[in-house]
Amino acid sequence: MAESGLRQDPQSTAAATVLKRAVELDSESRYPQALVCYQEGIDLLLQVLKGTKDNTKRCNLREKISKYMDRAENIKKYLDQEKEEAKETPGISLRFCCESKHLRS
User: Domain limits at 22?
Assistant: First the structure.
């Protein structure tokens, strides 16, 4: 999804690379990192959209941006919900913190 039709200029290539990484992180359930990559990739696609004159390409870019934004919004909602649940149950936030540190090793 991140690569089709984008590999034409450096910004398109950068967007495809960042979004590909976002999808990888997403599939690994590394949601905070995936969200950052989705946001950066969407910003890059918006820059590409601004410089695109062809209406068909603009339509395709808008569609891709919309799909990535939907996914990023869902991840954001999930992370916000996790954060709220952690506030309500302090023991869980400590466990989550320890698991996060363990996963980075």
Answer: 10-82
Domain count, the chain: 1
- DSSP character for 88? H
Tell me, what DSSP letter sits at residue 9? S
Residue 26 placed within a domain: yes
CB half-sphere exposure, 99, CA atoms < 13 A: 7
pLDDT tens by residue, 19-61:
999 999 999 999 999 999 999 999 999 999 999 999 999 999 9
Per-residue burial over 36-54, b if 16 or more Cβ lie within 10 Å, else e, is ebbbbbbebbeebbeebee
The per-residue pLDDT for 6 is 46
pTM over 0.85: no
Q: Write the CATH number for 66.
A: 1.20.58.80
